[in-house]
Amino acid sequence: MSDPIRFYFQGQIQQVDDVAPTRTLLQHLREDRHCTGTKEGCAEGDCGACTVVVGEMKNGQLELQSVNSCIQFMPALDGKAVFTVEDLQQADGKLHPVQQALVECHGSQCGFCTPGFAMSLWSLYLKKEGQDKPACRKEVDETLSGNLCRCTGYRPIIDAARRMSELPAAQFDRAAVIAGLQGLQRGEMFTYEADGQSFFAPRTLQQLAEIRAAQPKATILAGSTDVGLWVTKQMRELGNIIYVREVDELKQIRTVDGKMEIGAAVSLNDAYGAICRHYPDELTEMWQRFASQPIRNTGTLGGSVANGSPIGDSAPWMIALGAEIVLRSVQGQRVLLLESFYLDYMKKDMQPGEFVEAVRIPLPKAGQHFRTYKLAKRYDQDISAVCAAFAVTLDGGIVRDAHIAFGGMAATSRRAPKAEAALNGQVWDESTLKNAMALLAEDYTPLTDMRASAAYRMQTAQNLLRRFWLETRTDAPLKLQAVNVFAPAATVTA
Questions:
Q1: What is the pLDDT of residues 239-262, one digit of tens each?
Q2: Are 438 and 444 within 8 A, CB to CB?
Q3: Order of strands, edge to edge, in the sheet holding 219-221?
Q4: Please, what are the domains in the chain?
Q5: H-helix segments, 323-402
Q6: Sign of the Cα pseudo-torsion (50, 56, 62, 65, in order)
Q7: Which of 261, 337, 448, 472 can pair with 369 through a Cys bridge, CB separation 3.0 to 4.6 Å?
């Protein structure tokens, strides 16, 4: 039996039961609700013109986050609140401080991207509500990392982000939203059907395993940051959908046998936030430069791993650390090294009826040196040309247990066995380094594509190994302020 989609919108509970399960929130807002303030730019979660704010109840509290409405499917909004640029106008008809600041600082020219900027800034405004200090430049930059503007050069928009906290405050009625959402929470699994397609949102791990066993060909959906593009860009038919973000067991972060276990439904922001408490210098910048704020709000680390993109930025550092993936089915758990999970391009060691339950990431150990580096043409929100991760344990200047992993160098993110063998048991000196650098050419055969040439990828992969050695060598270590490199490809030289 199908349930209607219910969500809080414009102060009321809305109910929808006649849209396809893959209809996006952006389509519903513009075409069904005629709320045309929200714009469509790229339809793939890159430009931010479609940014809205979604609220949901977590541990009894209202959590509000910016998301890309162009890749969010309508049934995933069940039980949540949706806010668009139309919600910003105050009850007395005045502009919200975010809007007023954009006007005063000339933060809009053609205006097409402005609603998205306004909603991202509104999410920051609400985050800073009740705090004495206004947002700093770093917070502003992170907030706007998912919004692109072709006109202003961003400086006036950043000025507006500062100005909005100086204007008379606007009140947000959290109590009304919480009251509305409390009446929408479901105790049982949500099932929605339309256009011959079913959407299942199980609430327990057992329910998920049973549905997956009964629907082995159904599409697993978490944050929709990859799957959404299958629909909006590739025009694929997904068939039935199993949504995992309502499974409580998949939202947990815990420590198991010296490893941090991160459930498959934990958002990228929460996952990176947890692991960066253990690897603050090594992974914090990777976290901040991994996609954009709206993508990190909705995407999951488990989904990124399950998708298995050869240019994904999470797999290399997890492989270098020796991370494990936990698979689940009605038969129980199966645990394997993440490096063994990837068999070939977009081909994984996953049996029918299995799904990703969690990833387990080893915590720091004595003597281990770990770094990760990203090379891309754009500083923010860009896919890597090369992503590298290195982890070695030094014992009296001798290399033990070297792990080298690259993304963008092969059909999958994978290790460099010949280069690793050249390091293990050897003195961590330049002679050893040069030998390992040369062997990278035997470990990988990179491709040439729009992001980089094969020659560039190989040269920079070798250079990154050298940089790692310069930062960690025992005789005269090079101290660098930023461990992770996110630089335009052209700035990296031999």
A1: 999 999 999 999 999 998 889 999
A2: no
A3: 190-194, 197-201, 241-243, 219-221
A4: 5-87+175-243 (3.10.20.30), 97-169 (1.10.150.120), 252-491 (3.30.390.50)
A5: 338-341
A6: negative
A7: 472
